[in-house]
């Protein structure tokens, strides 16, 4: 079995497949890289809920529930810590419009049976004293945690190596198809990797692999996100942290988040830009992030700015991933995770290993079959959106 793409989705697929006894290889010039090197690592099933995405919510919650056990298994397999932190999230409003938006989100969360508590501005500041005095209210979501995606990627790479996954450190240039079946890949360095099954997990590039028949090429596009990394001040033991949990807001229509890590890193993100494969960090992007974050937490301007970067979210037409077998025998997809790649890593590894070992997707992943984007497949895969979760 060959996985094309060694980001966290490709790696978790390879690791879980190898654990099930499949002979597994990964093709990627720099495995462990990709969007996870930029991502903040919020496990935000509840605070990133959107209208019309209740089906995706079910998968997001299923993956969030798997995180504690997944973390324990991966840390055991790799000997590395992945920074899973059960810190919860506070989503706040800075003005009347934001507050109305948060009230709507809260109503949707409650209708969906989720755990979310409305707080006044004063209650928000009691939880997080660094918040601006103007905060008008917020949602306390104690179940939305975080993980460190860079550590996650490193641990998955080690776990794969220890499980016997073979790495081809070259880009897959073309899928090979023989007798109407995917049969491996030709690499950019000229090498050929034959495989009985191929998983396309190429993130934003998944829709561009040569040799994939048009009808099964995944409809994935990149959405750029710029992210900053700051350094938190050291606080003496027993003193309150600068921020104790993830803080989010929508400022002038732009979603913003600050994710404080135990390591002392504060991740501040993110822009959302439809600019193709451009990953330039722009003065405007950095300015807007800092301007909005300063409105939310004025003290951030005192912190050292240690890194700026930009990544690409692999995005499908319905913002949900494409998982499992395609109409081309031997070719499966694991791509299109958009804003939820880190959150969906545990469940993706599990369902892809099952699909590779048995040929069919587990029930919870069926709505995410690539067939939903083909005319006949869409009929079969349709799921009512407002189903209870
Ligand atoms: N999930 C956070 C982001 O995509 O920016």
Automatic annotation (TrEMBL):
<keyword id="KW-0560">Oxidoreductase</keyword>
<dbReference type="GO" id="GO:0009228">
    <property type="term" value="P:thiamine biosynthetic process"/>
</dbReference>
<dbReference type="Pfam" id="PF01266">
    <property type="entry name" value="DAO"/>
</dbReference>
<protein>
    <recommendedName>
        <fullName>glycine oxidase</fullName>
        <ecNumber>1.4.3.19</ecNumber>
    </recommendedName>
</protein>
<dbReference type="GO" id="GO:0043799">
    <property type="term" value="F:glycine oxidase activity"/>
</dbReference>
<comment type="pathway">
    <text>Cofactor biosynthesis; thiamine diphosphate biosynthesis.</text>
</comment>
<keyword id="KW-0784">Thiamine biosynthesis</keyword>
<dbReference type="GO" id="GO:0005737">
    <property type="term" value="C:cytoplasm"/>
</dbReference>
<dbReference type="GO" id="GO:0050660">
    <property type="term" value="F:flavin adenine dinucleotide binding"/>
</dbReference>
<dbReference type="InterPro" id="IPR036188">
    <property type="entry name" value="FAD/NAD-bd_sf"/>
</dbReference>
<dbReference type="InterPro" id="IPR006076">
    <property type="entry name" value="FAD-dep_OxRdtase"/>
</dbReference>
<feature type="domain" description="FAD dependent oxidoreductase">
    <location>
        <begin position="2"/>
        <end position="354"/>
    </location>
</feature>
<dbReference type="GO" id="GO:0009229">
    <property type="term" value="P:thiamine diphosphate biosynthetic process"/>
</dbReference>
<dbReference type="InterPro" id="IPR012727">
    <property type="entry name" value="Gly_oxidase_ThiO"/>
</dbReference>
